[in-house]
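Researcher: Going back to the complex we discussed earlier. I've cleaned up the inputs and rechecked each line, so this should be the final set. Can you rerun the prediction on the complete assembly and write out the structure?
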Amino acid sequence: MINTMPTMHEPARAIPIIAEADVCVLGGSCTGVFAAVRAARAGRSVVLVEKTNRFGGVATNGLVCIWHNDLDDRYEQQIIAGLSLEVVARLQRRDAVTVRERNPDTRYILNTEELTIELDELVREAGVVPYLHTVFCRAIRDDGGRIEAVLVENKDGRGAIRAKVFIDATGDGDLAKECAVPFSVRADLQPPTTCAKIVGLEGVDMRKFYNQHRSEYGLPEDAGWSCSIPGVGAVRLHAETHCFGANVADARQLTAAEMEGRQHIRGMMDMARRFLPERRAQLCLLALAGSIGTRETRRFQAEHRLTEDEVLHGVRFPDAIANGTYRVDIHYPKGGGHLFKYLDGRQVSTTHHGQEWSRWRPESTDNPLFYQIPYRTMVRRDCPNLIMAGRMIDADPGAFGAIRVMITMNQTGEAAGVAAALAVDGTDTWQIDPLALRARLAAGGSIVL
Ligand SMILES: Cc1cc2nc3c(=O)[nH]c(=O)nc-3n(C[C@H](O)[C@H](O)[C@H](O)COP(=O)(O)OP(=O)(O)OC[C@H]3O[C@@H](n4cnc5c(N)ncnc54)[C@H](O)[C@@H]3O)c2cc1C
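Model: Rerun complete. Updated structure for the full complex:
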């Protein structure tokens, strides 16, 4: 779309250089934090920039508390470790995680408030220089496409951060967009959701309840999910609705979606008060997500686009930096619900009408037990000191549906951090030797297969 907005000129001015480091990471979800920590543990100086008040991204600000599965599809082989399991172990010491055996959907349920503090500790211990409440806005690049500095804004005003290697872990790819990396935004994006912690709705079939009464509250047909929170039986995390049609990488649409998502929660609470009067005494809206939970926005082009076929057939890559088993999970662009496609050939479509099971391929005894993500999905040869990590990496819609979950994205962060540490000597990020990268990842606790 052509931008027809009127423009004006900002007068040129000198910008203070507020930090210089080997590696600068933009976006402080677990992806970004893990990238920063791995680069720092490799002996590099690291700056980490996050626009909200806390690290963790969707896991903390979005309240989403489930890390799916670190085992293969038969629950036999460990395929994921690294910082994800280090954090799980740290949370276990605080009774802040529930571990479920043989459960591919919800193996780890985390207390996201404890996770917030744990991520602070991790950043502090690694010696990473953190900037919270600081938003990335512009990149300064040389003629060869190398990023010299990024401009950020915070309470002090505008400042520059210089580094040798930059990692974009902003989810929406704000730095990659600034660097003119080609991207697309699909018409049928997986819609975002505002999550809430609510007391008093345990045991209610929310899908049925919501759709029975929603029209009286002007709310759309929908189907979502909820889960318990470790240690507090009465509180559940509710992700019941979607803001359909919203591209939340657009400022106006993001604003509208934030307000619409909260309106959904208000509607659910009003319904519950009216139609579940016996629960009224204990009913309580305990917490609202600090940011709407974003599933999908811009899709960037890298050296390789991971395909649904590669994921569902468990294709192995010589430059694999992450493993996963989470099914293809595509939330419908309207009407609620989702389509799941499993590695064993089953698929299920869930809507508020119920579930419909079928197969995306015939039964076989030769099902892949996990899939992989190659490093090439994170780099481009025309951006020699940029690494992309997290949900912005290059994948087609089906592959994206599978890999977008946190226990998988966390690994892309770790790989970005280790690759950045290697690229500090001036090697282009797309030319990092995959053997060296994989060896360093394994030496730092990641499982490399
Ligand atoms: C409602 C919902 C439910 C989900 N359920 C699950 C689930 O149960 N389990 C699971 O594993 N996954 C789940 N997912 C998917 C998963 O949460 C996301 O795909 C994953 O968090 C993406 O990680 P990320 O690091 O790429 O991005 P994000 O978590 O979105 O993090 C991006 C970070 O960058 C920061 N940032 C953005 N722009 C800037 C900027 N310009 N300057 C500075 N900082 C910036 C953000 O504040 C944020 O901290 C769910 C997603 C949603 C929305």
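Model: Worth noting: Residues 26-29, 31, 49-52, 57-58, 62, 64, 66-68, 135-136, 169-172, 174, 192-193, 195, 239, 293-295, 390-391, 404-407, 409 surround flavin-adenine dinucleotide (CB under 6 Å).
Researcher: Good, that matches what I expected from the previous run.
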